[in-house]
Please model this.
Amino acid sequence: MDPIQDIKRPSKKLIDTLYEHVSAATASGDLNKMGIRNAFIQGPLPFTPGKKVVGPALTLQFMPKRDDIYPDGEYVEPETQLHRHALYNTQPGDLIVVDAMGRLDSGVFGNMMLTYFHGAGGIGAIVDGCIRDYAESRDIGLGLWLKGVTPNFHTQTEMFPYAVNVPVNCSGTYVAPGDIIIADDDGAVVVPIHLAEELAERGQEHAEWEEFSREKLEAGGDLRRYYPLTEEARPEYEEWKSNQGS
Model:
């Protein structure tokens, strides 16, 4: 088997800025303004409510099963099973994004694999499909965005792991290895790596004026003036922002 290509990871500073200032909703909205019409990975839902993760994507692609290509059985020739190799290059802060064809009858990972991933520093899994052993896996510490859960193992029915760290179709959304994922209770959004720095800058500004506007609206301010922030209200915002550092 050829060595699995590793991903190029962004700086910790960039990840920290995105985590602090950019929600999935902000990322989706700002990416739309930047020309990415729909970066939302529709389908996988948050199975660990309250969890937010931001990090680069390792990718795993499943394909329809063909018995002359992939041996049957859960533990047959384990080191030929690429869902394991998808996790071997894990570094702290990584996520795994899985194109599992949207199937609900195969658990791409179970508790042992996810425990290994978390122990290696993984922070979240976005799966266009299912995992198994959910009762044990939900409390590991990973963020999980899934279409569902199942008792079946990964090749029990009609698919098998085919490729690692290649571009994948995750629930209709293109994800390249190394793209940044922002996922929270609203869902998961893919940030093309070449747009991540610009998004961080936009997101920081967006978060600041939204906080100002939220305070104004809470105090009874006019929605038409403060959301979105109008040019007429901008001098108030600039004064508010300058006072934040005093």
